[in-house]
Amino acid sequence: MAYNEQFAQRIRASFEIQPQAVRSNITEKKMFGGIAFLYHGKMTVGIIKDNLMVRVISNKMEGVLSSEHVRLMDFAKRPMKEFVYVSHEGIATEEQLLNYIELGLEHAKQKLNEL
């Protein structure tokens, strides 16, 4: 199993409650052996197996990594800059999931502003 499809449906539903300007600019792309959700082509969150992958702006990484059920993303045994994994226990509620989606959207919007 490349990624959890039920979890992908939860993420899609969470994006559906975002403002129209956000949800109309979300696309999906298969990446890292899973699926990623992009805002204007910039990665926000994704799923690898049962883990949520989240892009986080640099100045929030330390705080996010101190959260329970969060760890630095280590794809191919290398830590990745501005990426974290959140285990299934860390996104048990819709409120928790929305919080991580907001972090991912914040990262994408910051990268778009840098262009």
Q: Can you tell me about this structure?
A:
This protein has 115 residues and is of the alpha+beta class. The chain has a single domain (5-114), classed as YgaC/TfoX-N like chaperone (Yope Regulator, Chain: A). It is 37% helix and 34% strand. The protein is built from four helices and six strands. The protein has a six-stranded antiparallel sheet. Strand 2 and strand 3 (42-48) form a beta hairpin. Helix 1 crosses helix 4 (94-114). The radius of gyration is 13 Å and the shape is globular. The termini are far apart. The mean pLDDT is 93.
List keywords for this structure.
115 residues; alpha+beta; Yope Regulator, Chain: A; six-stranded antiparallel β-sheet; 4 helices
The count of helical stretches stands at 4
Helix fraction bin: 25-40%
Shape: globular
Question: Gyration radius, to the nearest Å?
Answer: 13 Å
Reading the helices and strands in chain order gives HHEEEEHEEH
How many domains in all?
A: 1
Across the major sheet, the strand order is 1-2-3-4-6-5
CATH architecture grouping: 2-Layer Sandwich
- CATH C-level label: Alpha Beta
| Portion in beta strands | 25-35%
Overall residue-averaged pLDDT value: 93
Looking at CATH, which topology would you report? Yope Regulator, Chain: A
Q: How many angstroms separate the termini?
A: 36 Å
Low-confidence stretches: none
Q: Indicate the multimeric state.
A: single chain
Strand elements, count: 6
CATH superfamily, please?
Answer: YgaC/TfoX-N like chaperone
